[in-house]
Amino acid sequence: MSVYKSEKPEYLERSLQSIWDDQICKPNKIILVQDGPVGIDLTEVLDRWIAKLGDIITLIVNEVNIGLTKSLNKGITAIDTDYIARMDSDDISMPDRMERQLEAMEANRADILSGTIVEFDESVDKPTAKRELPEKNEQIIEFAKKRSPFNHPAVMYKKSSVLKSGLYEDYTYFEDYNLWATMLNDGCIGYNVKKPVLYMRAGEGMYKRRG
Is the entire prediction scored with pTM above 0.85? Predict the structure, then answer.
């Protein structure tokens, strides 16, 4: 998870709760990349979670803002597990996300997968849209010729496969799509969980927070 100065502290708090407190299958490690100075309020949230989880959390601090692409690459190279679940600092993972995605990774021998995401603005009880993608690898490859075949906010991938394909590159607005295309071209197996696994906080404020 990369954290940027424009994030709201309460959104970061809820996001972290969703990947630890709420999860049926908790992660072995959480990598937080602080992308430049973030201010007192966000720092308090980060400090509180580091104190709560201790060695479970590793905080990487970029002295200056270097952008999401390079921050994600830092997180990928720093983690010591092969399975990596990506998370944005304002989204909410559903309680069975990790369990469902890990089972799908193993059952389908996947190198990369995501799942259906539900967009919301004010409340998860009032969804505004749903992003559903093709399930099987053959369908994903065909779909990828025209559009991004994985929902980046809910992606899970193998570190070894991402490293083999060269990590994220600086393709403005298409960093994730470029990586997916490269991985599929390299023979990586894709899969998408059809059931919802994540609530994505959308609305007008999203671009300001993630900009």
Answer: yes
Q: Are 137 and 191 in contact (CB under 8 A)?
A: yes
pLDDT in tens, 42-51: 999 999 999 9
Q: How many other C-beta atoms are found inside a 10 Å radius of the C-beta of residue 161? A: 18
Q: Give the integer Cα–Cα distance in Å for 181 and 183.
A: 6
Residues 137 and 189: beta-carbon distance below 8 Å: yes
Cα distances (Å, whole numbers) of residue 100 to 53, 88, 103, 112, 196: 23, 19, 5, 14, 10
Pairing of strands 156-158, 112-120: antiparallel
Return d(Cα 124, Cα 118) in angstroms, integer: 8
CA 134 to the chain's CA centroid: 19
Q: Mapping DSSP to helix (H, G, I), strand (E, B) and coil, where does residue 183 land? A: helix
Tell me the residue length of the chain: 211
114, with CB counted inside 10 A (0-12, 13-18, 19+), is: buried
The DSSP symbol for 147 reads: S
What is each CA distance from 18 to 13, 141, 190, in whole angstroms?
9, 31, 25
Question: pLDDT confidence of 172, banded at 50, 70, 90?
Answer: confident
Average pLDDT of every residue of the chain: 95
Q: Give the DSSP H or E segment for 82.
A: none
Residue (of 90, 127, 83, 96) closest to 22 by Cα position: 96
